[in-house]
Amino acid sequence: MKKLVGIIVMLSIVLTMLAGCNSKGNSSGGDMPTYKMGLLPWTGYAPWYIAEDQGLFKKYKINVKLVSFKQDADLNAAFASDDIQLANIASHTALRMAGQNGLDIKSIVFLDESTKADAMITTGKYKSFADLKGKKVAYEEGTTSDLLFKQALKDNNLTSKDFKIVLSSAADAGIALASNKVDAAVTYEPYISEIKNKNKDIHSIYSGSDAPGLISDMTVVKTSFLKDNPKVQDKLEKIWDEALDYWKENPDKGNEIVAKGTGSTVEDLPPILDGIKFFSIDEQKQLMDSGELAKNIEKIKEILTSQEKFKNDVNVQNILSIK
């Protein structure tokens, strides 16, 4: 009887440990759990593909599995439900997660800022943003494209009611423009370059360069995850820096890895990369220490809250965990 009781106790302990793994990461069969990292085919997240290809996760003894998503909403849902533990998302998405969904999150790596890599594109028929008044504009709701369009509206003293909005994924928005189903599309790279290469008449009419600091990205985790796994941030910071260094020192090989990961071509990368600013860990810390990072995120928060009421108070400083 005592033996039977002992077996039951041991089984209970094992089941408890397995349950813990589900909230903190999936067991990889050894002592180290596997953390799933969600990302979209956005070139700003590309250094993670290099990290995977070059074995940098293994070097720093952290098991990370990259999980690709086509739409922001799917990635966000996976993160909220703990299907993934690490999420690469736009800064405004992080604010929404905290403000609308009540998620307690931390930004542990500030990845990039988009200048020309997020844009509203249209045909040569339209020379200015105002020319598109009353026309069909396609974009993905709740994404950087949505945010950029709203800023363009503000800059041009217009509202969304002045346009015929067509909601679609970032990829489909560009396709809709190319097939003349809409008059303009707000999307991001590599979709912008893909459409421009197919139709030389397509041009950017408003981009991230018209709203500096508005479009940026970060890697976030839940605060509870970071508390349970305090070494993850330091390891990912080192991995991010080494991936950037490798890409700089090996541009041809790096571009091959990035093109494969994002679904673009090596030939398309130069104009795409020209519109993205990647931040090293030192640069991230400088932005944090100077207060510039918090200022830019506050600006994004101001734009969001002017158009939608957050259900929860959002403390920008509390979200930023750049050390």
Automatic annotation (TrEMBL):
Signal peptide: none annotated. Residues 43-253 form the SsuA/THI5-like domain. Gene3D superfamilies: Periplasmic binding protein-like II (3.40.190.10). PROSITE patterns: PROKAR_LIPOPROTEIN. It is found in: Periplasm. Keywords: Signal. The keyword Heme does not apply. Belongs to the bacterial solute-binding protein SsuA/TauA family. This is ABC transporter substrate-binding protein. It comes from Terrilactibacillus laevilacticus.
